[in-house]
Amino acid sequence: MALNNFLDFFQIQKEKTFRPKKKFAHGTIRYSLHKQACASLNSGINLRNAVKLPSGEDLNDWVAVHVVDFFNRINLIYGTISEYCTDQTCPTMSGGPRFEYLWADGAKYKRPTPLPAREYISNLMDWIEIQINNQALFPCTSDLPFPKNFLTHCSKILARLHRVFVHVYIHHFQNIVTIAAEAHVNTCYKHFYYFVTEFDLVSTKELEPLSEMASKICKDSPE
């Protein structure tokens, strides 16, 4: 499967999504920003420049759009390899021997708890869906204000989404190679990496498991 277009890959793989895709309502500011971001990805523009806040736009709107887009795309990436991620092959949510992630959501899991990777990711996607469907956190219209701690909420979501990248790259990269999707996954990671570093949304500690890879593939310089 040789695809020239980054977004074509995700369109073709949509039947494998791990969760239903979240969409923006037509006519809203966020829908327009989403289309603008997608157009930039499709045009082959420098990704480091593509993540910058468009002139005159609100940072919260721009971040909200990207949180939902990354949620959708990482769902699709994990969906392409989820059949290989079983309780037997991945009994822990890890990124190699140095990194293991424990799940806590303050509800069912009040304390950090070790889970198989697939169960961890399922809980993570459920948790994110609750966040982005909560009008108090992610208002769907411009007449509703964002909460003052909106960016803090988004940082937590993005940090946890990054753990899915960590698990996929370290434990399932050969599965990605098998379907000839490594270039597209790399592009998605670069987009994610440039975005979270542009706005300082994910700590260097969370990014550490893939820091060596990022130093090799994220070499675009601002134009």
Describe the structure.
With 223 residues, this protein is mainly alpha-helical. It is 55% helix and 0% strand. The chain contains 9 helices and no strands. Helix 2 (29-43) packs across helix 4 (59-81) and helix 4 runs parallel beside helix 6. It is globular, with a radius of gyration of 17 Å. The two termini are 32 Å apart. 33% of the residues are buried. The model has no long low-confidence stretch (mean pLDDT 83).
Helix-strand layout with pairing:
Layout: H1 6-12, H2 29-43, H3 47-50, H4 59-81, H5 117-133, H6 150-178, H7 182-198, H8 204-207, H9 211-217
Helix pairs in contact: 2-4, 4-6, 4-7, 5-6, 6-7
What is this entry, summarized?
With 223 residues, the protein is mainly α. The chain is 55% helix and 0% strand.
| Backbone CA Rg | 17 Å
Helix and strand content put the structural class at mainly alpha
User: Which ranges are low-confidence, i.e. pLDDT below 50, for 5 or more consecutive residues?
Assistant: none
| Number of distinct beta strands | 0
Distance between the termini: 32 Å
The major β-sheet equals: none
| Helix-residue proportion | 55-70%
Oligomeric state of shown chains: single chain
Attribute tags:
about 220 residues; mainly alpha
